[in-house]
Structure formats: C-alpha cells, structure tokens
Amino acid sequence: MNYIGSKNKLSTFITSTIEEVVYDDLSQMVVCDLFAGTGIIGRNFKPKAKQIISNDLEYYSFVLNRNYIGNNQTIANRQDFVDQLNAIMPFAGFIYTHYCKGGHGERHYFSDENGKKIDAIRMQIEDWKTKGAINEDLYYFLLASLLESADKVANTASVYGAYLKKLKKSAQKPLILEAADFTTDTKKHRVYNKDSNQLINEIQGDILYLDPPYNARQYGANYHMLNTIARYDWFIPKGKTGLRSYNKSEYSSKRTVAKAFEELLEKAKFNYIFLSYNNEGLLTIDEIKDIMQKHGAYSLASTPYRRFKADKDINRNHIADKTEEYLHILKK
Ligand SMILES: C[S@@+](CC[C@H](N)C(=O)[O-])C[C@H]1O[C@@H](n2cnc3c(N)ncnc32)[C@H](O)[C@@H]1O
Description:
By secondary structure, the protein is an alpha/beta fold. Helix content is about 35%, strand content about 15%.
C-alpha cells in the first residue's frame, strides 16, 4: 500500500541497524512496533523475534496488522472464501451511495462497479461473521484483503483527502480481491488498536520501534475511506470528501508532540528504543536528541532517501524528493 511515511523502502536500513545495535539473540526478544501503519517493520521481525507487539491508533491499520502479525496459523480454505467473494453480485450499499458517481453523485472515490463490489464483499464478510461461518482469523484476513484490494482501485492521487474528477486508469480496472497472505509460526503475537501513550503502560519488552507521524497530516483524515470500509458502520459523511469523525494524534501537532514523546519515553519498559523521524518533522533532530538522552545512551543513524513528494498534481507519484531519514537510538 502506498502509505504516508511507509517504511517499506527503508525497512532494510531500519532492521539491519536495529540488529547491529542490539547484537543479541533476537529469537529471545519481544519487539514492539507501536505506530505500525502497514505493519512492514513488525512483519520483518515476525520470523526473527520471540514475539511481536503491534499497535496503531487507526482501525484499518489494526485490521492489516491483526492479519499480517496476529494471524499465524494456516487458514486451510481461505482461497475458497476469496473466490466466493470475487464471484459475488454487486450491491448498491453505503460506499456506492456516498462515494461513487452513480450513488448520490457527490463523490468519486471508486468506479460505480467497484463501489458496489466493495459493498457486496464487505456485507458478505460481516454476514459470515455474524452467522459464525468464519472465525476471527479468517474475518481479519478477508478484511485486510479487501482493504488492500480496494486501495489499489481508489480514484485518488494517493490519500483519501481528495478524489480525482476523472477515473484514473488504475481505478477503471475491476476490483479483484487478492489474498493478504501472512507468514505462519507457533508464536503468540499481540495486536492492539490503542493510543501509543495509553498502551505503553500495559506492555514491556526488549526492542521498541517508534514511527510516529512527523507532520501535521492526520492519518484518520487522510485514510478515512479505509476506516469506513473496515468499520462499515453508519454515519453521515461530511463535506466534499465525505469525511467521518477521526482521531487527532498528539504526534501531529507542534503544540503537543514534545510532551507526548517525552511521556512515552519515560513510561517505556523496553531496553532499546528506536525512533524513525525525518529531517522535516515537527521535532528537530536536536529536540529529539535532548529528550532521548535524558533517558540513557543516545546515538543516531541516518540514510539518504528519495521519497515521493505529495503534491497537488496527479503525476505526484513521479516526483521524487531527496531527504534524510534518521533512526534515533536509545539504550535505556
Ligand atoms: C509514519 S506512520 C507508520 C508507518 C509504518 N511504520 C509503515 O511502514 O507502514 C505513523 C502511524 O502512526 C499512527 N499513529 C498516529 N498517532 C498515534 C498514536 N497516538 N498512537 C498509535 N498510533 C498512532 C498512524 O495511524 C500511522 O499509521
């Protein structure tokens, strides 16, 4: 998924730096990905660590991580369910009505066909769950598959803060539900959907990886459509974009970020803490260093990074922007 702040392309730098710093047997360690997003860092550590704790404030992210991290037993007949959902009759439901041209006609996030397919698939998944035809593992596997497959055909430049007037090429393609396959093991991972600063009181472990938002863009607003598909609850969509009410993270405000971060470090019961942050964030490198070094031995690793720049224009995915990505390191 094309996700703001995704560490997909930086995951080798991050995992190898963490492994070099810790330099111990990871198979005995609990690793926590506290701001998990797409879950890529937790997924990298899943085969290596004793246990992964994964968390994010947003429900769509919880769904992805509940599948990719939380699921670890083979679901034998999962492809049958995916096939059944792919063959489903489209249905004009909430997504079609509020987010497609053919519905109320106000918004244009999906083609009419894809909007109806999302509705039909989402309703069928819920129906199976209500009737006890699928267990929780399969429920989250199917939901995660739907979120990722719907995101691929969304008619947006990248996030859901706006839609495009004309259906772009990828949005014209029919939605095909693709299986969100996860790795299997015999460990017991834990997945949460909480505020980081609340959850930190309830957990402990060895390695804490922090990747909070670093600017004022709220994830709940930018990915509201994924929460709407994941929750599939009833509400009155607001304004041009059909926004639902959304979480406001303390990490996305200059006024609150330093205090939240300081409090998080104070409470963290982990031996090693790693923080990803880029050089254009709300906190400066020096501010982070000042906060972190109060709590133990501090060091810094960095790598140059060409990130995709968010811009107004539809070609934005082609505009690469040079930046520096930092990994702040604390041995508590
Ligand atoms: C930079 S992204 C993480 C990206 C992730 N590492 C990846 O590679 O996909 C930041 C994440 O922090 C989450 N978030 C923001 N505030 C939070 C909070 N107070 N507690 C937990 N998660 C939060 C956002 O929903 C978002 O998914």
